[in-house]
Amino acid sequence: EGKRRELISTAAAAGVAVAFGAPVGGVLFSYEEVSTMFPSKTMLRAFFAAVIAALTLLWYNPTGTGKLTMFQVFTPDMPSAYEFPWFVLLGVMGGLLGALFVRWNIKISAARAPGTAFRKKVPIIVEVVVIALFTAVTSFPSLYTQNLSSVTINALFHTCEDSNYPRPFSADMMNLCEGEEPAIGSSLVMSLLLAALVRFLQMTVTFGTGVPCGLFVPSLYTGACLGRCVGIFVKWFYLYLGVPMAPVHPGVYAMVGAAAVLGGVCRVTISLVVIMYELTSALQLVVPFMIAVLTAKFVGDSFGQGIYDRVIELRGYPYLHDPDEHGCDTRARSLMDDDIDCVYADAGTLGDLLKKVTETKFGGFPVVQSASDPTLLGYVHTAEVRMHCEKLLTSQLVQERMRTVFQKYCNEKVDSALDFSPLVDETVLRIVPEMPVAQVHNLFLQLGIKLVLVTRFSALAGIITKKSFVHHMSKAHHGGDGGDGGDESATEETLETGRSRKAQSMAHPEPLKEPQTPAQTRQRLDSMRLFLSAFGGASPAATATSPQTKVAVQGGDGEDASATRAKKSLRKWTNYTTVSAPTDSVRDFHEHTSTVIKQGTRLDKVNMAVVPWLIPALVGFLTATSGSLVEVGSEWLNNLRFGRCGTNFFVGPETCGSAWVVWADTSLFSYLSYIAVSVCFATTSALLVWGFAPMARGSGIPEVKTILGGFVMKDVLEFKTLVVKVIGLTFSVSSGMSLGKEGPLVHVACCWANLCSKLSSRYVENESKRRELISTAAAAGVAVAFGTPLGGVLFSYEEVSTMFSKTTMTRAFFAAVVASLSLRWYDPTGTGKLTMFETHFVEMPALSEYPWFVLLGAVGGVLGAIFVRCNIKVGEARKDGTPFRNKVHIVIEVAVIALLTAATSWPSAFTRCMSTTTIRALFQTCGGSHQEGIDMSGLCDDLTGEPLLALEAALALAVAAMLRYVQMTFTFGTGVPCGLFVPSLYTGACMGRILGMFVAGLNSQYHFTAGAINPGVYAMVGAAAVLGGVCRVTISLVVIMFGLTNALQLIVPFMLAVLTSKFVGDCFSDGIYDAVIILRGYPYLHEPGEQCFRERARDIMDERLECLNAEPTTLGDLKQTLDAMHFGGLPLIASPRDLTLLGYVHADPLRKHVEKTLESALMSPSTPVVFKRYTARRVQGALDFSKFVDETVLRIAPETPLAQVHNIFWRLGVKLVLVARFGKIAGLITKKSFLDHQQQSHHGGHTEAVKDQVRNPNGGPRGLKAPLLQA
User: Fold this and answer.
1) Helix axes 581-588, 767-786, angle to 10 degrees
2) With 60 as the cut, is the pLDDT of residue 909 above it?
């Protein structure tokens, strides 16, 4: 079923790709709205399915246009700043209309549900006929409702000035135009408003009736009519006031209004924006779309959920939404089913067991020791047991009266009994009753499990199934005790919904009940005397003992080897601290959310709601400011390599004109001055990095990935790194070295996020909350670097972030919008547009050209893999401590690379200028490039205006590509801020242009396609292919590419090339960022694969542990123990002889509390300390430190597959898991040790240390390295 659901997720993407001609929007819609689990592997397959669907749709060509775009329009320019408040207004109106539709439609659907009075009187077929009649009668009177909705939408979206642009309504725009101007009469406005009202009411009663029906098109229709009316009003308003501004296009408002209403109905964000500009080809409207959709979602969410979630609720479907923060105040004990039907180790006769599993409605049963001993042994699945029983009974040697046991767990061997031990699943997750519901929610949502078992000190206390959890969440039963009360008993309602698992007829008919107190629980287990008097009665006098205990599991290796194996990860990654997302989430709730809700003023509540949005907005603005400074500064400094302006030193040659003065009159001296200035700029950048902030070198993306992967790295995001990064990047880009500013701008944005986090106490001490902010900053960084806000959000999700919740995605969306608006306001390029390499391609490539795009993808993948291998070898050779680095200082290395780059770049016109200038020319078509003011020399025939197909031009491009490729190989990773996006695009653009010239030549001879071959198209596809081969990003790169170029018609070629380059590149190497992470030794956990199922947790767990015991001790001894330890915490066990796992103690909070306590004059090092809740021993005047014990740390069995352990670390963001067997500690796996075992392949080399049938610990003197478990 799990694999089938992966396939269904890919199918959802293909469905949207066909419905709207929007393959990228299909993938995003499947991720954002449809799928619960959407790993990278599923995303790639969904990407592939959407490409195939789009290509097939192109081949069928059902619309006869030869294009995927359903409502292709022409938007001549970006909307002016005066228009953006109107887009916000449209978003508000869309949110209100969406919320109104949801409320009315749900009321109507509830009234006509099966079993209601209405449904009993009116058959569903009659209802459909009446609705159809009503729709036809009300639609006929108006021109705008007579036709199909898509026809009217197409007209509403168009402007009246695009008469030379191909559209299906050039003769008749449905009275929306008066010549070349849009009609603005009041009668038109009234007609459109009436049409919108009619469609809105029709949609309200139609959606959910007895026919297949969707709501996208009628929502778009309603919003388009509404938006067109607003656009007409805005045009009239500004004409009336006489405000001088750019022309107002009502068609633009129609598109934005359509997005707003659909966003208000469905509450989707990023996928809807992509769908809208894939529908309309209006890439210039991406920021207005984003503003309207975000506003519509915020307004709509103020009144209720989106339509799909409300329908799920109405129809009673079990669906688990994303967790909220309020679940941290409720505990698992409030939800667990405590009346449980179990199977015992002595299961009775075969016939009884078969009857039990045949008659039950449950999918399985917990296995416990006996009715009097609730020790949890595992879980058996009903279907497996039933099949095994039936198979046994087919043999004549087996009879129903034969005894069945789980021999592995029996205290004594039972002769002549059937052993069902292999059917026991010991890997089912176990939690404690004190675990917050928010963490339980994450377990179900992120791991996709169907149940968890609740245990306390190895005794089964309850069970929580996914069904019961969803039921209780929907009915708000989880808030019953606020996390402080006792366990709840079953109610009649919960019995009906399956919460209570009633006992059925079996050999042992009594149902297992959870003991009411820890003392009773411990009494049923192994006579654990420490807890017998822990909660009542006097206890004998106790003396203080050492708080620390060393325990070990006897493995196959020697004692020294085991110790070395257990702690090697601590030595390897000493400088990296691991972040625990669940712990931070609970602490954030108790320190901020809960406090504000219970005790905060209205201002505190407003502050709590607003700050998580204000800080991303501030980060977006500051990132745009930094990016604009780098852009303007690098452009000015780059001009100084060639000369200066005689009239104004601070302007470039374009502005200066004839007053521009070159540095030398001869070619030789110009050449030397070019080299000298380039080396000077590069050396300045290297000196700044080496002297003040070494972490500012490189792109910074590997470091950001590591931080977002759950580790703390020093100096990476500090203020000095930010300053040096910005200044150094300006100098390194202007030096002409083969590098780009795009990757470093992501690092700059994340530095701003780290600094801005200090504005709120909620982010200062909470590493996980800060990482959410850093994820949003990464999106803003890419939005500034490429002018593609959507590409930024997707890059943060796909490449940078490990945990990327829907809330984080929405805030990243918001930060990218603010960054884009700020960048447009600064306008550092002087074009007034966000698009860096704007092109004007309106025709789709012919299907006969697609094999060439696949070839470009394959070549790009090979080139990317070669670059990764060569660059990593160069990086290894120049690491600190190598012979090369000992001889050559890093500043000298940078100067030499800059010198060689400048010397080899000067001879060719393609490499002499900045790479972005050449890329812009390579992407253009020869027919319309001259009016853009772009120098196309060497690429176009000056006489005919056709692409130049000469061999000399191809050779010049090949040499330029080779030079940049080699330069990039040595430059990336050197001692200056440097990225690789631009040089990768440059190499691919040259390669693609060469292939385009070759294909154009072939076509001129053999005419395999009727249309013209445009080499600029091949340059863009080649650029995407090489960058994809280097970085191995897919969907985000496709969005970045058509955001960079405005070439929306090339979306399918981009997708083909990027997918091919990734597949080919992955055959030879990792992507560059992952390879750099490995080279520099950063701890980073990749997404889990399928190869881990062979290994178990017992194969890699640290078996030699230092633990705290619950015996009484003193403040001095405890402080000495804490000061000597090198770990973030220690497991807490009952005593040195009783290894019952009680919980986990985090070192830092306890250490701070101990130090603060010792500062008091009333305390001394001899003051006794006790974990009162966990020991029966009493000491007069002892301090109780029980509150520092974290009982919620995840516990797994030694038999848990490594794939499941991997998923726990990857999806839940935990820093460690405790390995326990029958309540006794068996080992510990930290995130660092898991990473180390993965990288070194040590997880397959251990001998099995823990035998399955062993349950009793070996006692020994306190402090000795006694075996924890004995076979």
Assistant:
1) 100
2) yes
- How far apart are alpha carbons 859 and 844 in whole angstroms? 23
Query: Beta 1168-1170 vs 1183-1184: how paired, if at all?
Result: parallel
d(CA 98, CA 299): 9
How far is Cα 270 from Cα 289, in angstroms, rounded to an integer?
10
Residues ≥6 apart with Cβ < 8 Å to 872: 1075, 1076, 1079
Would you state the pLDDT for residue 563? 46
Which of the 8 DSSP states describes residue 939?
Answer: T
Quote the CA–CA distance of 569 and 1228 in Å, as a whole number. 13
Measured CA to CA, the distance from residue 546 to residue 303 in angstroms comes to 58
Q: Which two tokens stand for residue 330?
A: 């409720």
Q: Which of 1147, 1239, 1099 is nearest to 569 (CA)?
A: 1239
d(CA 1097, CA 1087): 18
Nearest Cα neighbor of 478 from 690, 287, 330 is 330
Residue positions counted in the chain: 1271
Q: Distance from CA of residue 1042 to its chain's centroid?
A: 22
Give the Cα separation of 477 and 457 in Å (integer): 26
- Checking if the pLDDT of 930 tops 60, the result is no
Answer whether 562's CB lies under 8 Å from 754's CB: no
Residues 6+ apart with CB under 8 A from 283: 277, 835, 1042, 1043, 1046, 1048
For tokens 């003197």, what's the residue? 1261
Give CA–CA dist 592/326, Å, rounded: 11
Contact 142, 213 (CB under 8 A): no
Q: At what angle do helices 767-786 and 806-826 cross, to 10 degrees?
A: 40
pLDDT of 562 above 70: no
Q: Give the integer Cα–Cα distance in Å for 838 and 1045.
A: 4
1133 in Cβ contact with 552 (< 8 Å): no
973 contacts 890 by C-beta, under 8 angstroms: no
Cα–Cα distance measured from residue 1025 to residue 964, given in angstroms and rounded to the nearest whole number: 16
- Please, are residues 862 and 1027 in contact by the beta-carbon 8 Å criterion? no
Give the residue carrying structure tokens 């509404």: 226
Question: Mean pLDDT across the chain, nearest whole number?
Answer: 83
Tell me the C-alpha distance between 567 and 16, whole Å: 50
Maximal C-alpha separation, the chain = 107
pLDDT at site 476: 52
Quote the CA–CA distance of 804 and 291 in Å, as a whole number: 21
Cα Rg of the chain, angstroms: 34
Cα torsion 1252, 1257, 1260, 1262: sign: positive
Q: Which helix (H) or strand (E) holds 92?
A: helix 84-111
The tokens describing 122, both together, are 């009116």
929 and 1014 Cβ atoms separated by less than 8 Å: no
Our measurement of the distance from residue 670's CA atom to the centroid of its chain's CA atoms, rounded to an integer in Å, reads: 50
Instruction: Show the DSSP H helices in 507-575 as ranges.
Output: 518-523, 559-572
The reported pLDDT for the residue numbered 91 is 96
User: At 548, is the pLDDT very low, low, confident or very high (cuts 50, 70, 90)?
Assistant: low
Helix (H, G, I), strand (E, B) or coil at 51: helix
**d(C-alpha 911, C-alpha 1040), whole Å:** 24
* Cα pseudo-dihedral 183, 186, 187, 192, rounded to 10: 80
Residues near 560 by Cβ (< 8 Å), separated by ≥ 6? none
Tens of pLDDT, residue by residue over 719-775, are 999 999 999 999 999 999 999 999 999 999 999 999 999 998 888 888 899 999 999
The DSSP call for residue 802 is: S
* Residue 629 Cα distances to 68, 281, 742, 826, angstroms: 39, 31, 13, 10
Residues 223/262, Cβ–Cβ less than 8 Å: yes
> What is the token pair recorded at 151?
């026809």
